[in-house]
Structures are given as structure tokens and as C-alpha cells.
Design brief:
Layout: H1 2-19, H2 21-31, H3 37-68, H4 73-93, H5 107-116, H6 119-132, H7 134-153, H8 155-195
Helix pairs in contact: 1-6, 1-7, 2-5, 2-7, 2-8, 3-5, 3-6, 3-7, 4-6, 4-8, 6-7
Length: 196
């Protein structure tokens, strides 16, 4: 049981960092500003379902598509790592103003895709499928998405408890972890190319 939990955590932690559930809360609050509680819950569900569909789609077809266009795992690791690093650096140094986006129409785009199911999550999923297996990666994804949905639904309470500044501070810490994860992915990709 302890070994199973260990393997699950090895898949869950990188996905938690990539999906950044706490960092999504202030974005979600901004995107749904002025919405009724029922509309917010519907938007949280719609964003989560969209992200789940995109992520599972990439888990099923991602490698097939990459094989068809001649992209290797190492190529994708390096490209994904560079994108993750750029996103992490942007999150660390750029102040984001979610209030400038439209309200409920944004549940699918940009919240579900590409903010939740973006390059970070897709890269992490494809890499974790090799290291942790399909079933463990899917389980970790579903648990993370359930947690994300819960946090979005509790967004107003979290904002009152931590404050928007507190949520943004947690998001910056997660962005720093994402940057480290990105460097690790780039290093592994380069190692595969140099070894081959």
C-alpha cells in the first residue's frame, strides 16, 4: 500500500504543480466576476470537464500524433520544458490582471483550455505516462482535477481566508516549482538526445 501511494504521489505532485489549482482561483474569480453562485459552480464544472477532455485526449492520441509528424519524446520534452519555463518565468515576473477577461463565456476558453489544460499539464502527462504508467497518471490527473474543481467552487471563501494577495503568493511559489520542473524536463530531453 505504501509503495502504491509513493507511485501515486510521484505522478500527482508534478501534475499538481503543472495544473496550479491555487493559482487558478484568482484567475477564476476574475473571469467570473459578477456571476451568481450557481453560475460560478456551472463555470467551474465546465472548465474542469473541458480540461479533463483535452488532457485525456492527449493521453490517448498525443504520442500517435507526434509519431505521425516525426517528433520524438526528447524533442517534445525540450520544447515542452522551454514552454513551461517561459510560462513559469512569466508567472513569476508579470502581474496578471484576470479582471480584463470576459465573464462566463471564458469557462471553456481560456480557463479550461489553455489555462488549465495547457502546455504544462500536457507535457507533464506525456512524460508521466512513461515513468508512472497510464493508469497511475490518469488517477493522478482525475484527483488533481477534482481538487481543482473543489478549489474553484470554494474560490470566494479561499480569497476571504488567504486574501487575493495570499493566493497570488502561493501561485508564485507554484510557478517557481514549475520552473524547476521545466529545467528537469529540458535536462532529461537533452540527455536522451546526447545518449542517442
Amino acid at each position: 500500500m505504501a509503495e502504491l501511494l509513493h507511485h501515486f504521489l510521484l505522478a500527482w505532485i508534478p501534475l499538481f504543480v503543472a495544473l496550479d489549482p491555487l493559482g487558478m482561483v484568482p484567475v477564476f474569480l476574475g473571469l467570473t466576476a459578477g456571476a451568481e453562485p450557481a453560475e460560478r459552480r456551472a463555470a467551474a464544472n465546465q472548465a474542469t470537464i473541458t480540461a479533463a477532455a483535452v488532457c485525456v485526449g492527449f493521453m490517448l492520441l498525443g504520442k500517435l500524433v507526434f509519431g505521425a509528424i516525426g517528433i520524438t519524446q526528447a524533442d517534445f520534452q525540450i520544447a515542452g520544458g522551454v514552454i513551461l519555463l517561459a510560462l513559469a518565468v512569466r508567472d513569476l515576473v508579470v502581474a496578471q490582471d484576470a479582471q480584463t477577461r470576459p465573464c462566463l463565456d471564458a469557462a471553456v476558453v481560456p480557463l479550461g483550455l489553455p489555462l488549465i489544460a495547457g502546455p504544462a499539464a500536457i507535457t507533464a502527462l506525456l512524460i508521466l505516462m512513461d515513468s508512472s504508467g497510464w493508469a497511475m497518471t490518469l488517477a493522478a490527473l482525475l484527483v488533481n482535477l477534482a481538487l481543482l474543481n473543489l478549489l474553484l467552487r470554494l474560490g470566494e471563501r479561499l480569497a476571504q481566508w488567504l486574501g487575493l494577495k495570499g493566493l497570488r503568493a502561493v501561485s508564485k511559489i507554484v510557478a517557481l516549482l514549475l520552473a524547476a520542473f521545466a529545467v528537469s524536463i529540458i535536462r532529461r530531453g537533452l540527455s536522451e538526445i546526447l545518449a542517442g
